[in-house]
């Protein structure tokens, strides 16, 4: 038996705690690296291009989230399908899923770029760009969209690396991207005077270089899923399964796009361009801990997916318990930093005292109930990992559309800019309650099925 298959079989036999550490730590390291690369990119832009450049970057968040929605839909959908098929020992179908995911990433990545570039100015205006911030937002997105297919493929291949029992390779891919970007970005911004466009170019070059390394890994026949003839032609039932599972992360990112549009417009109306910049800074701080939690979830995905497919419900519940505990601890650390070091966090991105002051308040209020976010994310990730697409989509949609958006529409009428910041903790509390109620219901089902030897 080759090493890749042996590693996959360990998902059903190795102690769950050690297994989660084995998969989650590389994923957490990778996500931490990705969030740091995201943050350092913003720091370089803020310090090298000015306060309005930070605001211009914040205006691009909805479009970036929409691009990420398609990438996440394919990546999470395909990796979950692969994990479940490996748990069922159906290696041939797992490879067909891999090939179809590759094809989908290319088609969607290119199509999204072409459509977005054709209508870029109206899109950015709709997302909240003003005359002052539009040039920065456009310069950044033209380059980002030109390399969108590369970004889709990079993130998609990384998700599949984890599903194929190669968490260390996925970690190394993310770390290498960060290192390359951290080297190239300041060079392009300062010595080469390329401004905010230089930061975008550095990101695409870094991802393209590491993507070549990822493709080399999947070219090895010893990898449990690898490039081979006959796996790339789209198969309707495989595409449907990928989309059915991937619809939840797609919906989450697409909803985030919608919500950010409303946030940018509310902030522009009540606080101006600098308030939009403060949101951008706050988003980057919270993003670090969100990404670490995503790493925790990604460590859980192959373990939960495999054991769900193998009907090992006891192991399934244990990995949920450990993931939930770790997720809450991570977001609690984020909460503590936000409440005690908000000035220092804002100062990293800008020397503009007005922007720092607005950002300080935004960070403190927005992350007021942050520990609950960890539990909600772990719950959503758990349902994603076992293919319960409708439930994970419900949790994703409810947090942003049913709870956050109404609060965002109402509160600024009474509290102006503070109303925008307050909408987040209020929606976090409500979505936490909904997630725990649904999770408790399914935990009881799994315990009953374990006792009876039945499937859920």
Automatic annotation (TrEMBL):
<dbReference type="GO" id="GO:0005886">
    <property type="term" value="C:plasma membrane"/>
</dbReference>
<dbReference type="GO" id="GO:0015297">
    <property type="term" value="F:antiporter activity"/>
</dbReference>
<feature type="transmembrane region" description="Helical">
    <location>
        <begin position="67"/>
        <end position="86"/>
    </location>
</feature>
<feature type="transmembrane region" description="Helical">
    <location>
        <begin position="20"/>
        <end position="37"/>
    </location>
</feature>
<feature type="transmembrane region" description="Helical">
    <location>
        <begin position="421"/>
        <end position="440"/>
    </location>
</feature>
<feature type="transmembrane region" description="Helical">
    <location>
        <begin position="391"/>
        <end position="415"/>
    </location>
</feature>
<feature type="transmembrane region" description="Helical">
    <location>
        <begin position="238"/>
        <end position="263"/>
    </location>
</feature>
<dbReference type="GO" id="GO:0046677">
    <property type="term" value="P:response to antibiotic"/>
</dbReference>
<feature type="transmembrane region" description="Helical">
    <location>
        <begin position="358"/>
        <end position="379"/>
    </location>
</feature>
<dbReference type="GO" id="GO:0042910">
    <property type="term" value="F:xenobiotic transmembrane transporter activity"/>
</dbReference>
<feature type="transmembrane region" description="Helical">
    <location>
        <begin position="316"/>
        <end position="338"/>
    </location>
</feature>
<feature type="transmembrane region" description="Helical">
    <location>
        <begin position="44"/>
        <end position="61"/>
    </location>
</feature>
<dbReference type="InterPro" id="IPR051327">
    <property type="entry name" value="MATE_MepA_subfamily"/>
</dbReference>
<keyword id="KW-0813">Transport</keyword>
<feature type="transmembrane region" description="Helical">
    <location>
        <begin position="98"/>
        <end position="120"/>
    </location>
</feature>
<protein>
    <recommendedName>
        <fullName>Multidrug export protein MepA</fullName>
    </recommendedName>
</protein>
<feature type="transmembrane region" description="Helical">
    <location>
        <begin position="275"/>
        <end position="295"/>
    </location>
</feature>
<keyword id="KW-1133">Transmembrane helix</keyword>
<feature type="transmembrane region" description="Helical">
    <location>
        <begin position="196"/>
        <end position="218"/>
    </location>
</feature>
<dbReference type="InterPro" id="IPR048279">
    <property type="entry name" value="MdtK-like"/>
</dbReference>
<keyword id="KW-0472">Membrane</keyword>
<comment type="similarity">
    <text>Belongs to the multi antimicrobial extrusion (MATE) (TC 2.A.66.1) family. MepA subfamily.</text>
</comment>
<feature type="transmembrane region" description="Helical">
    <location>
        <begin position="140"/>
        <end position="161"/>
    </location>
</feature>
<dbReference type="Pfam" id="PF01554">
    <property type="entry name" value="MatE"/>
</dbReference>
<dbReference type="InterPro" id="IPR002528">
    <property type="entry name" value="MATE_fam"/>
</dbReference>
<keyword id="KW-0046">Antibiotic resistance</keyword>
<keyword id="KW-1003">Cell membrane</keyword>
<feature type="transmembrane region" description="Helical">
    <location>
        <begin position="173"/>
        <end position="190"/>
    </location>
</feature>
<dbReference type="InterPro" id="IPR045070">
    <property type="entry name" value="MATE_MepA-like"/>
</dbReference>
<keyword id="KW-0812">Transmembrane</keyword>
């Amino acid at each position: 038996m080759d090493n890749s298959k042996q590693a996959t079989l360990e998902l059903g036999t190795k102690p769950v705690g050690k297994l989660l550490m084995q998969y989650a730590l590389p994923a957490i390291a990778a996500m931490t690296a990705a969030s740091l690369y995201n943050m350092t990119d913003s720091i370089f832009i803020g310090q090298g291009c000015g306060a309005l450049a930070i605001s211009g970057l914040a205006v691009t968040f909805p479009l970036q989230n929409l691009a990420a929605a398609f990438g996440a839909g394919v990546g999470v959908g395909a990796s979950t399908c692969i994990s479940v098929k490996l748990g069922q020992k159906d290696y041939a179908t797992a490879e067909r899923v891999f090939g179809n995911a590759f094809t989908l990433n290319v088609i969607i990545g290119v199509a999204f770029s072409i459509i977005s570039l054709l209508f870029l100015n109206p899109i950015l205006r709709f997302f909240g760009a003003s005359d002052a911030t539009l040039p920065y937002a456009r310069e950044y997105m033209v380059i980002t969209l030109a390399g969108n297919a590369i970004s889709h493929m990079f993130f998609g291949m990384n998700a599949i690396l984890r599903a194929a029992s190669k968490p260390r390779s996925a970690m190394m891919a993310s770390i290498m991207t960060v290192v390359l970007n951290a080297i190239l970005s300041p060079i392009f911004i300062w010595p080469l005077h390329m401004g905010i466009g230089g930061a975008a170019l550095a990101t695409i070059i870094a991802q393209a270089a590491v993507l070549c390394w990822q493709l080399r890994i999947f070219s090895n026949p010893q990898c449990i899923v690898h490039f081979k003839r006959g796996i790339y032609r789209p198969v309707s039932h495989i595409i449907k399964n990928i989309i059915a599972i991937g619809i939840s992360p797609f919906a989450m990112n697409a909803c985030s796009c919608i919500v950010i549009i409303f946030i940018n417009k509310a902030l522009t109306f009540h606080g101006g361009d600098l308030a939009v910049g403060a949101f951008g800074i706050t988003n980057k701080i919270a993003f670090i801990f969100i990404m670490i939690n995503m790493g925790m979830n990604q460590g859980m995905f192959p373990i939960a997916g495999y054991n769900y497919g193998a009907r090992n419900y006891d192991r399934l519940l244990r990995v949920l318990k450990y993931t939930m505990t770790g997720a809450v601890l991570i977001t609690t650390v984020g909460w503590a930093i936000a409440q005690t070091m908000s000035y220092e966090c804002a100062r990293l991105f800008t020397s503009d005292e007005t922007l720092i002051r607005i950002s300080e308040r935004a960070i403190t209020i927005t992350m007021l109930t942050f520990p609950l976010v960890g539990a909600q994310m772990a719950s959503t990730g758990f349902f994603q990992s076992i293919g319960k697409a409708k439930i994970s989509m419900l949790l994703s949609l409810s947090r942003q559309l049913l709870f956050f958006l109404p609060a965002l529409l109402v509160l600024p009428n009474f509290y102006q800019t503070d109303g925008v910041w307050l909408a987040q903790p209020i929606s976090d509390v409500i979505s936490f309650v909904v997630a725990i109620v649904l999770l408790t219901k399914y935990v009881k089902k799994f315990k009953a099925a374990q006792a009876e030897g039945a499937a859920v």
